[in-house]
Task: structure prediction
Amino acid sequence: MKKVLVIGGNGFIGTNLVQTLLSHGEDVSSFDIQKPTRPIAGVRYIEGDFFDDECLEESLIDIDVVYHSLSTVNPGNSNKRFLQGYSRDFVQSVKLFDMCLQKQIKVIFLSSGGTVYGLQKEQPIKETALPQPINHYGTVKLCIESVLKTFNTQIHSNMLIARISNPYGPGQDFHKGVGFIDAALKKSMKHETIEVWGDGSVIRDYIYIDDVCEMLYSLMYYDGDEEVFNLSSNHGVSINDIIKEIDNLGLEPKVTYEASRAVDVPKVILDNTRIMKIYQKQITGLDVGIQKYYQHLKQFI
Result:
């Protein structure tokens, strides 16, 4: 059993990751600006400001592994808030890595496979591809990755990077700037119109949140030579494909198509060969995942 700290534990991925770690018998702590409205029994909650150095360092006492999942910007707003991403998220992440190195704490940084790679001709995209982000969110993540890699090279540390594709499932909130499946399902269930940026041909690699968290858990005990892992389904689907899946549920989604956005890459499919050598479990298919999430949402909508 390891003592694990999830930074950003109240977020979509953080909340689900805390539950997964707890289910595997780990000693779990969650760090965020405030305690959640629905705390999970068995989890130690730490209220604190990630950007307060003293508070952050205190949260690391007696910790073996840190999952860093906190971000104050998202793909949709990062081009407006880019200085916030660089001056706060980037700088404080570097401080976190330094603190963890001094305390010999393993770090797993949750990056963004959907934005870090940017425009790529070869699909699915391997971890060895040259990242070419087209928005500031992806660039901030890449900057954080670069510092982590430098620490690994100079100090021979074992910090890992998890480039996650497009997760979906319980706990997601599209109002925070990401989550098309979340938005499409909830709006369809409420008989509201789904807004699609572009003609619906944009292709993404969607992965159910349970699979993401189990993959992240598998990295906790990894001690090999790789430092970057794509966490993905290895399968691309278009926005229109998702709408068809929702229609198959009998929800009859209403859709309007708007002008495409400059922040959206036309196609991103991530090669998951590397993580599947460690994870080795069947990944939830899109149809099954959407059905599972729909059944979950029916309890609340």
